[in-house]
Each structure stands twice: as C-alpha cells, then as structure tokens.
Amino acid sequence: MLQNSDLKIHYDKLDTPFLFVNKPIFFNNLTRLRTEIEGLKCELRPHFKTLRALESTPYLLPKKSSPITVSTMKEAEALASAGYRDIIYAVGIAASKLPRVANLLSKGIEIKVILDSVEQANLLNDFSINNHCAISALIEIDCDGHRGGITPDDPTLVKIAQLLDRGAACFQGILTHAGESYQCFDQASLRAAAQNEVDAAVNAARHLRATDIICNIVSIGSTPTAHSYQNLDGITEVRAGVYGFFDLVMTGIGVCTTHDIAASVVTTVIGHNKERGSLFIDAGWMALSSDRGTASQPKDCGYGLLTDSAGKVLDNLQVTTVNQEHGIIEAVDGSNINFDNFPIGCRLHVLPNHACATASMHQHYHVFDIQTNTYDVWTRVQGW
C-alpha cells in the first residue's frame, strides 16, 4: 500500500494501534455519492457524525455555505467556528441543548433542530419567547418503524406543525431516516426501502401543504438508501454519513466492497498461541470498538476482517475476540494459521464493522495519500 519511502517512514514510526485513512479511497467515496445525488437533481447534506474532523470538511463540503448534518452540539459548535452556517442537529431536541442552539443563532448560524412531539413543540415556542429568538425545527417522520418519529398520516403531524408555525419558533419541514434499510441485503430490497422513504417524506409534506403549512425542507437519508434512489422528485435534500469511510456493515448490505473501505485500524501482532491456533494483536475494543454490526448479516465478520499492510484481504482470518487492549485473530474457515506469515512484530489492518464506532475510539486519524505523497493528521471533535 505504501511503496513510497517517505510515506512508509511516517507509517513505520507510528505506534499501534492507530486509525489509518486511505485518502484517495475516501475522496472517491465522497465523489461517488455527491455525483449520484446531484445527478438526481437533489442536494446532498452530509452527516458529520462519522468523520467529526474539521480537516475533512474541505473534501466533504464544496463550500462554507454547504449544508451539513450533525449528531451532537459539539459538532455544530466546531463547524460554526470554522465558518459553516447551515446545520441540522438531527437528534431529538432536549431542553438542556436549547441555550447552545440559541447561542449559535445569535452568531448567525442557521441551525435547525428536530422533534416529534407536542411537548417538544411547546418547549421550543416557550424558549423562543423567553429568549427573544426563533428556533427552527423539522418534524421527524417515521418511514419504517425503525426508531422515532410520526407516521405521515398521523394527525399529530399537522398539530405539531401548526404549533410551530403559529408560535414563536419556526417550522421548516420534515426529516426521515430509513434505518431499517440496514436489514436489506440485495438491490431489490434496498431500492424498495429507498422508494418507501421517498414516498413517506413526500406524503408527509403533502399532508402539511394541504393544510396551508409551508414545508420548505423535505429531508431523507441513510447511507444504504442514499446509494439506491431512482427518483427524488419532491425531496429537497439527502443525508448520509458513513459513506465517506464505509465499513463491513455497508459491505454486507451491498453498497460497497472491502476495497471501498477507507478507514482501518493498524495493529501489531504481539503473540502466537500455536496450540489454539490464534494470533494476539495490540488492538482490543478500545481501538476497534465492541460493535458487532455484522452479526445479523449473512456474513458475520466478528470484530473485523484483516488485511495485510498492502491492503490485501486475508479472507480466512477474523478478529474473533476483543479484550480492552488485546484482540485475538483466528482462522474461520477450518484452516490453520501459518504463523510464519505473521511473525511477532508484523503489522495488520483491521477493517471496521461500524466506521462511526471505530472512529470514535481515536482522537486522531492518520491520513495517507499515495497519489500526492502526503501524510496528514486529522483531529476528531470529541464530546457532546
């Protein structure tokens, strides 16, 4: 993977475990989705939750006015400090977050929150009155029973929108997330989930407009469906997050291959157990996370698949066990590990089950670009 001597020097000097980012693959992933969504005449609003590094934003967002989604107020504040102004905080709003939202509004940041209850709408109206501001909100729509939200035909949808529209807060539109698409494993079911998401969002907006409520934003998205839309008529924007790094969950769903996974954890072989046929590595759940997102998929990847330092997938090996700072690698196809191929001190790469979870275990990302012969360190925005 790193034939260039200068990059290899950087790579070899880094202590393991560390998060490795293949920058050309990362950039290709970003370009692929943006091209697909813009080709359907829609706007892409990337989700920052996976990357959470300001150094990534010049690649993620074309310009400072580009829209972005966040999962924490800490992300919103960091992006605002870097000059990004169009932000959706896509977690149901709580009272404790509102002063921070108001602070960003006072600085000219166009931040919008989401909600799905009358109680939250009243909370926003009351806070907006008491603090002389107008907090913008989207109503979350439940398109597939995955998590929260209101179904498109629930009368409460119109009631909440009217409360916001007539109150001190500001109603902006609706938002949905096709979380059940993570249970799709073929193109037909992915396209069906994507179309269902589009239909739910468009129907919700239609119900609101039928009562003379303006619905400016119709926001949908998940990485599986974002790569599966056929028509986005009636949709104003698409959100997705993990597509920049990709991971084994996305590989199992079928929206990418292992060659598209841009992030991996570099680890060192620190021991052999020839009697049990296993390798020990210095990456446990503190480096890999304990996410088992592939366990319910047709192919269970344990705690991660392995590649060598050149990027070749070692098909018969998996990280099968993780302790806090140790991982155990075993052969999973009935074969035996050839220990001569993995001497103590050699390095391997672990492909993540869930890139969001694995990235969250690392304060810094080590970004290598073999095309431009550059190495960078990106710092993750930590906290909430």
From TrEMBL:
Alphabetical list of SMART domains matching this protein: D-ser_dehydrat
GO biological process, one term: D-serine catabolic process
Superkingdom of this protein's organism: Bacteria
Gene3D superfamilies given in the database record: Alanine racemase (3.20.20.10), D-serine dehydratase-like domain (2.40.37.20)
One Pfam family cited in the UniProt record for this chain: D-ser_dehydrat
D-serine dehydratase-like domain mapped to chain residues: 262-369
InterPro entries found in the cross-reference section: Ala_racemase_N, D-amino_acid_metab_enzyme, D-ser_dehydrat-like_dom, D-ser_dehydrat-like_sf, PLP-binding_barrel
Keyword terms of this UniProt record: Lyase
Residues in coiled coil: none
GO molecular function: D-serine ammonia-lyase activity
Similarity remark: Belongs to the DSD1 family.
Protein name (database record): DSD1 family PLP-dependent enzyme
